[in-house]
Structures are given as C-alpha cells and as structure tokens.
Amino acid sequence: xxxxxxxxxxxxxxxxxxxxxxxxxxxxxxxxxxxxxxxxxxxxxxxxxxxxxxxxxxxxxxxxxxxxxxxxxxxxxxxxxxxxxxxxxxxxxxxxxxxxxxxxxxxxxxxxxxxxxxxxxxxxxxxxxxxxxxxxxxxxxxxxxxxxxxxxxxxxxxxxxxxxxxxxxxxxxxxxxxxxxxxxxxxxxxxxxxxxxxxxxxxxxxxxxxxxxxxxxxxxxxxxxxxxxxxxxxxxxxxxxxxxxxxxxxxxxxxxxxxxxxxxxxxxxxxxxxxxxxxxxxxxxxxxxxxxxxxxxxxxxxxxxxxxxxxxxxxxxxxxxxxxxxxxxxxxxxxxxxxxxxxxxxxxxxxxxxxxxxxxxxxxxxxxxxxxxxxxxxxxxxxxxxxxxxxxxxxxxxxxxxxxxxxxxxxxxxxxxxxxxxxxxxxxxxxxxxxxxxxxxxxxxxxxxxxxxxxxxxxxxxxxxxxxxxxxxxxxxxxxxxxxxxxxxxxxxxx
Length: 495
Ligand SMILES: Nc1ncnc2c1ncn2[C@@H]1O[C@H](COP(=O)(O)OP(=O)(O)OP(=O)(O)O)[C@@H](O)[C@H]1O
Ligand SMILES: [Mg+2]
Known about the structure:
By secondary structure, the protein is of the alpha+beta class. The chain folds into three domains: 16-182, 2-Layer Sandwich (Beta-Lactamase); 241-328, Helix Hairpins; 334-488, Histidine kinase-like ATPase, C-terminal domain (Heat Shock Protein 90, 2-Layer Sandwich). 55% of the residues lie in helices and 17% in strands. It is built from twelve helices and 13 strands. The protein has helices at 2-8, 13-65, 71-83, 87-90, 122-136, 177-227, 243-293, 299-328, 342-356, 375-391, 439-443, 452-462, and strands spanning 93-98, 102-105, 141-147, 151-162, 166-175, 338-341, 360-363, 369-373, 399-407, 411-418, 466-471, 477-484, 486-488. The strands form three sheets. The protein has a five-stranded antiparallel sheet, with helices on both faces. The radius of gyration is 54 Å and the shape is rod-shaped. The chain starts with a helix and ends in a 7-residue tail after the last strand. The model has no long low-confidence stretch (mean pLDDT 87). The structure holds adenosine-5'-triphosphate and magnesium ion. Residues 384, 388-389, 392, 418, 420-421, 423, 431, 436-438, 441, 448-454, 477 line the site of adenosine-5'-triphosphate. The site of magnesium ion has 5 residues, from α10.
C-alpha cells in the first residue's frame, strides 16, 4: 500500500495540474502582454506622428503666408513663429533652416550657431556640432533620432517651397518619452497582474488537483489492500465527486464482488473436490486394512475387497474425468462443432442408454433436421440427463421419457422426463451447481458426485444454449436442454 501511495507522490496529479495551469497562465499572460505592450506603443506613435504632421503643416503654412521677399525675412518669419512656441512649454522641437541665412529653433542648445559662443569650450562646441548634424542630416520624412537629455525623438523633416523661389527646411520633433513611459506602465501593471494570476492559478489548480486525485488515492488504497489479500474493502464515493468517479468506483466494486465470488467458488470447489476424492480413498484404505489384518484371507474375501477397490477406483476416475472436463469447458476451443443429423443421432443414443437399465423408455417423435453442435458433448449431456432419470426411478416400472421439439428461432429443445420423486422447487437452480445434490440423493448410496448437471450446464452454455429444471406431468423431474443452430428439414415445421 505504501509503495502504491508513494508512486502517487512525486508526480502527483495535483502537482502536474498546478504545473500545467501555471504554464498555460504564463503563456496567456505573455501573449496578452506582448499584444497590449506593442499596441500601446503603436497607438501612441501614431498619435505623435499625427501631432508632428499637424505642427509641420502649420509651420509651413505660416511661412508661405509670411510672403517674405528675401531669405533673411523668411528666416525672421520662421523665428517669430518658432519663438512663440518654446520647447519647455509644448515639448515640441521646432526648427527651420533657411539656406545660407540662419537656423531658427526653440531648442538652441541642440544646434551649433554659425559663429561659436564665446562661453563654450571647444568640446561643448563639438558636441553641439554633432547634435545639429544628427538633426539636420536626418532624412526627409519621419525618422527617430536619439538625443541626450531628450531621449528618442520622433522627427518629421520637410523641405517647404515658399513664393519667391525660396526653400526652407523645417523640422518638427516630438520626444518619444511618453511612449516609453506608457509602455513601462503597461509592463508594471502586467507584471503585477501576472504575479497575482499565477499565484491564483497555482493555488486553484493545486486544490483542484488534490480534490480530483482524492478518489484515485482512495482507490489505490483499496487496490493495495486487495493486493495484500483482503477482498472486503469497497470504494465509497460521494455525489459531489462527479459521474466519472461514480462509474469507476461502481465498476471497481463490481469487479471486487465478482472476484470475491470467484475466490469463494474456487475455494468451495477445491474443498468439495478434495472431499469427494477422499471418500473413495478412505474406503479403499479401510478395505485394504481389513485384508491386511487377516493372516490368511480366503479367496472369496480377496475377491470381495478387489471388487470394492475396483469400484472405488472407477469412481475416482470418473470424478477426475468430470473435473477435467469442467476445467476444459472454460477454454475457448472446448467444442468441436459440426452438423448433426438429429434423427439417427438421437436414435442411436437412445438405443444405447435403454440397454443399460430396464425402465419404461419412451421416445416421442423426433423433428427431422440438422443441429450444429459438438456431437460428443451433446451426447454426454443427454446421457447425464437420462442417467439421472434412470437413477431416480424405480426399476422395471419407472418411466424415462425423452421428447425433442423444434422451436422458432432455429432452436431445438430436448426434454428428459421421469416419474421419480422430482426435484423440489427450491433446488431447481442449485442442482446445476458443482457438487450439489439434493438431500434425498445424498442419503442414497447411489455414488453420484453432483457434477453431472454442472457439466450439462457448461455444455449448454458453451453452445449458447440453456438448461433448466421443472416438473414432469407425472410428478417426476423434467430437465429442458435448449440449443441454437437447428435447421429443420422442410417436412417438419417448428412446434
Ligand atoms: N431426474 C432427477 N430426479 C430427481 N432428482 C434429480 C434428478 N436429476 C438430478 N437430480 C438431483 O440433482 C442432483 C445433481 O445431479 P447431478 O447429475 O449433477 O449429480 P449426481 O447425479 O448426484 O452425480 P453425478 O451425475 O456427478 O454422478 C442429484 O444429486 C439429485 O439430487
Ligand atoms: Mg447425475
């Protein structure tokens, strides 16, 4: 039992369920996270692109409307527009480059002035040169430029043609910090939600797994006890455990019931067989001891003992043969089925049995036809039935009758009847059990072992037929053996 339960532990259902649940929860959270994270970024970038486009359009429109006649005036108009929108207020970088004149911008520290500032060191100057080169050298259209302090900047650069055959390059940049910020927020929220979901999934799946595996553990415990030889425990289940568990538990309990019956039957069979074998052996030993006790037994005494011993040995042989036959009936290749012509078959059998005893033997008219059966086994079954009828009827005047009827559905019924004491109502099923004899038969010294009808039933079952006991019209016993596989000749319709 301990071994079985231990096997459940390391890879227990609840742990495996918890593992799978967690894995699925992680995978689902990861998919949703990637989708939301990227979606947030894309949406914000679109929004920023829309804003920069609007800003650039407005600047360009303004420069066109300024109607500047010289580049210098154009640069002044650009400066006016740009200076009205300081970077610190809108966080939108604006610049306009009128070739050969000036660069107007609301973030002057990013652009190197045409003439160096007096206060700047050469390295600061070089740094500004690099930044302005990065911004001014960006391709036309949208691009992303990384700037110190500002971070990534979404930049839209356009060349605007203004009246007077002049051109001006304008640039509008929006920092992408908002996007990163929003995405960081999404990531943080997701990590928190994922951790909570994981903890929930882990607990729920562990509890669910424990609940689901509980009946299995109980079954394992019961199986372990059965394995140890105790067939009594049964699995109890409650309605809350689901229909599947109930079906499994019922099937398991049913199997245990059958096993219990089979073991009990087996034990009784072995006990009965031993008992039946011991009786003749005791008789033989007793007779031999009687003989041995005599110093000079007479020839007649020796012959008497010899006759008795021979009879007991015959009884043992018959018993062993019957036991072997019963054991064989459980094998699939027990029968050798062939077509049997019913008229000659029953006729010959009847002639044979009516020779062994003197009774009033009656055989009614037989239906002509062919029966698919094992002739040896069928003859044996009928001989057992007729033998019983002979056994239970009075010599000479006792009636032993056999009738054969063709039935609908290709079946045939053999009825063996007698006018003996009959079989009590409560014994009519039990007489087919192995070693069962009615009390009246037990008292008689007839020598029957109680296997004859068990063999008849085994033969009937093997053929797919049936056998049952009832009462004959004369008050004696009637045994009906019904078999399938009968094809009547055209002349004899079914009764
Ligand atoms: N025709 C019958 N009339 C009355 N009782 C019968 C008849 N046939 C069977 N029985 C009862 O059924 C019991 C079982 O019969 P069965 O043929 O199995 O065993 P048996 O005749 O006692 O022994 P065996 O046939 O093994 O030599 C008999 O002991 C008897 O009590
Ligand atoms: Mg018998």
